[in-house]
Amino acid sequence: MKRIFNPLIFSILFGLSLISCQNNAKKKKVESVSSEQLAKEISENLPGQTAEIVHPGKAVYTKYCLTCHQADGSGVPGMHPPLGPGSWAGKDPKELIAIMMKGLSGKIEVNGEIYKGFMPSHAQLTDQEIADVLSYMRSSFGNSFDPVDAELVKKVRSGK
Ligand code: HEC
């Protein structure tokens, strides 16, 4: 009796625990937390630690834009235009997204300087990465423009 009974109990318990795991997994929806909230949490829970908030677009910028536009967005004179105040960073987000999709070449003027360079397309980045990197650019290098939404990137990408 004992021998039959134990595996039976075991399998019932095992089944129950699987079900409860699944329920837990469903409950654990990841909530998005703003960077301000995160900074507050860190400074409250780890007194003495300074919470350096890193913009999600910074990593994208560092990987895909920094070599040409430089870490501080100052660009390279005569080659790669700057991205700070007076640049195209404050343009209509749709235009900026279009530049990410198609790249940019031909004669342009930024801050009174003429550039005749070539910027490659960055259409390989995800909607979120493009939104993040443009938002980062628009809030860094002395800029303070509104962030760009991934939904808008999706729209422009699909030509709507
Ligand atoms: C290979 C070098 C290169 C890379 C990489 C590059 N750019 Fe550019 N970018 C340029 C050049 C060159 C121009 C000007 C093109 C022209 O002269 O027509 C430009 C123009 C721009 C402009 C419009 C002009 C201005 O300065 O305001 C923006 C905005 C911009 N780039 C943002 C970015 C962002 C964001 C990334 C990363 C996702 C990026 N670029 C990656 C070379 C680059």
Number of domains: 2
Tally of strands: 4
List all distinct small molecules, including ions and cofactors, that are bound in this structure.
Answer: heme C
Average pLDDT, all residues: 84
**Major sheet characteristics:** 2 strands, antiparallel
User: Cα-atom Rg, whole angstroms?
Assistant: 24 Å
What does this protein structure show overall?
This protein is mainly alpha-helical. It folds into 2 domains: 2-45, no CATH class; 56-157, Orthogonal Bundle (Cytochrome Bc1 Complex, Chain D, domain 2), CATH 1.10.760. 50% of the residues lie in helices and 6% in strands. The chain has a two-stranded antiparallel ribbon. The protein has a two-stranded antiparallel ribbon with strand order 2-3. It binds heme C.
Essential attributes:
two-stranded antiparallel sheet; binds heme C; two-stranded antiparallel ribbon; 4 strands; mainly alpha; Cytochrome Bc1 Complex, Chain D, domain 2; 160 residues
Task: Write a concise synopsis of the structure shown.
With 160 residues, the protein is mainly alpha-helical. Helices cover 50% and strands 6% of the residues.
Task: Detail the topology: elements first, then pairings.
Layout: H1 2-27, H2 35-45, H3 56-64, H4 66-69, H5 93-102, E1 104-105, E2 108-110, E3 113-115, E4 118-119, H6 127-138, H7 150-157
Antiparallel strand pairs: 1-4, 2-3
Helix pairs in contact: 3-6, 5-7, 6-7
The structure holds heme C.
